[in-house]
Amino acid sequence: MAVLRPGDMFAAESDTTALLILNCPIQGVGMLRKLHANVGYCICADGGANRVYDILMEEYGERGWRDALKVALPNEIHGDLDSIEGMVRERYAALGVRITKDGDTESTDFGKCIDILRERVDGLRDVVVLGSLGGRVDQGLGLVGELLRVAGKVRVWLVTERSLSFVVHPGETTVELGEWKRGSHVGVLPVYGPATLGTHGLKWDVTAWETEMGGKVSSCNMLAADRVVIQVNREVLFTVELAIH
C-alpha cells in the first residue's frame, strides 16, 4: 500500500525535491518563498521567470533588483525561451542563473523541465509544480494530462491558486492529511478514464463506485479524517483545498 504525505512539501526540506515554476500568475510571495526554501533545486519554465521576477520586484523592489531576486532565486531557466522577457533574462544571467534552451516543438516547457530536473537532481523523487488551472482551458487540461504522462518518472505535486493536486495510482493509497483542516474540500476525479473507486476518510465515502467524467464524480467532497484511503483500479486525480492549519 502506498502512503503519500503532501504536507511534507510545505514543511520539510529535501535535496531530492525540486520546484518547477510555470508561466502562470503567482498568487502570493509567501507560498513561493515557502516552497523555494524546502527544495534542493528550483527551475523556471521559460516565462515562469517573468512571473517570479514580477512578484519579487513588486514585494521587495525597494531593496534593489539584485536583492529582490535573491529572495527566491532559481537555479535554472529552461524551455524554448520564447516567453522570457529580455531584461528579466539579462538580470537573472547577471546573478549566475543557468539559462538553457530546448527548441523541441513537440514537447511542452513542463515536459522539458521535468527531463532536465531528472538530469540535474541526484535521486529526484518529488517535483512541486507552482502553476495554475484558472487560465486558458487548453493549457489547464494539457497540464492535467502532463501529470499522468510523467507519473512513471517522478512524483509530481501541482500547487495552484487554491488547491494541491496529484495523481493516485491503481491499488490502495493512504493520503496523510493531518496538516489540513477538517472540512477542506476534496475531489477524486476520473480525468484519465472510467474507474471503480472506494474511499475512507471523506464526508461522503464510496465503495466499489463506478465513476467517470460525464457520469458520477466525487467532487466537492470534504475531509473528515486525518487520512484518506483510496482504492481505485486506474489513475485518478486527487485534489485538496489549500486549507492548512
UniProtKB/TrEMBL annotation:
<dbReference type="InterPro" id="IPR016966">
    <property type="entry name" value="Thiamin_pyrophosphokinase_euk"/>
</dbReference>
<dbReference type="GO" id="GO:0030975">
    <property type="term" value="F:thiamine binding"/>
</dbReference>
<dbReference type="InterPro" id="IPR006282">
    <property type="entry name" value="Thi_PPkinase"/>
</dbReference>
<keyword id="KW-0418">Kinase</keyword>
<dbReference type="InterPro" id="IPR036759">
    <property type="entry name" value="TPK_catalytic_sf"/>
</dbReference>
<keyword id="KW-0067">ATP-binding</keyword>
<dbReference type="GO" id="GO:0016301">
    <property type="term" value="F:kinase activity"/>
</dbReference>
<dbReference type="GO" id="GO:0005524">
    <property type="term" value="F:ATP binding"/>
</dbReference>
<keyword id="KW-0808">Transferase</keyword>
<feature type="domain" description="Thiamin pyrophosphokinase thiamin-binding">
    <location>
        <begin position="171"/>
        <end position="237"/>
    </location>
</feature>
<dbReference type="GO" id="GO:0009229">
    <property type="term" value="P:thiamine diphosphate biosynthetic process"/>
</dbReference>
<keyword id="KW-0547">Nucleotide-binding</keyword>
<dbReference type="GO" id="GO:0006772">
    <property type="term" value="P:thiamine metabolic process"/>
</dbReference>
<dbReference type="InterPro" id="IPR036371">
    <property type="entry name" value="TPK_B1-bd_sf"/>
</dbReference>
<dbReference type="Pfam" id="PF04265">
    <property type="entry name" value="TPK_B1_binding"/>
</dbReference>
<dbReference type="InterPro" id="IPR007373">
    <property type="entry name" value="Thiamin_PyroPKinase_B1-bd"/>
</dbReference>
<protein>
    <recommendedName>
        <fullName>Thiamine pyrophosphokinase</fullName>
        <ecNumber>2.7.6.2</ecNumber>
    </recommendedName>
</protein>
<dbReference type="InterPro" id="IPR007371">
    <property type="entry name" value="TPK_catalytic"/>
</dbReference>
<comment type="similarity">
    <text>Belongs to the thiamine pyrophosphokinase family.</text>
</comment>
<dbReference type="GO" id="GO:0004788">
    <property type="term" value="F:thiamine diphosphokinase activity"/>
</dbReference>
<dbReference type="Pfam" id="PF04263">
    <property type="entry name" value="TPK_catalytic"/>
</dbReference>
<comment type="pathway">
    <text>Cofactor biosynthesis; thiamine diphosphate biosynthesis; thiamine diphosphate from thiamine: step 1/1.</text>
</comment>
